[in-house]
Amino acid sequence: MNCVAVLPYYKVQREVTGLAQEIEMNARSMILYSDKIVTKYREFNITEVFDMSFRRMGDKGGFFYLHTSTGVYPYMVEIDPKPFIQSFRKMTNQKLK
Question: Which three-class secondary structure state does DSSP give residue 81?
């Protein structure tokens, strides 16, 4: 199975211990294959994915949204996911917005 596109994203985990708050950023990758999209803990069949969108937050990065038949899943990204979205839409023959 060949990888079509990869989108790096990250998960922020906060832990409060005593009087301190520790913030840990975990780098992860979302991989687009011809038949599915795979994240660290989820796998979506390509027929379950309706669309993808992006909302910029601040100067750098924002939220990437994966619209599926089971709901909308947000992912924090630091880069513009436009190439990933274009690859998905080209592969599924959706018109670019």
Answer: coil
Which helix (H) or strand (E) segment holds residue 89: the answer is helix 82-91
Which structure tokens are listed for 43? 């796998």
Q: Which residues contact 63 (CB under 8 A, 6 or more apart)?
A: 54, 55, 57, 74, 75, 76, 77
Residues 35-54 have pLDDT tens digits of 999 999 999 999 999 999 99
In which residue ranges of the chain is pLDDT below 70? 94-97
Q: Are strands 43-45 and 3-17 parallel, antiparallel or unpaired?
A: unpaired
Predicted structure pTM score: 0.84
- b vs e for 39-48, b when ≥16 Cβ sit within 10 Å of the residue's Cβ? beeeebeeee
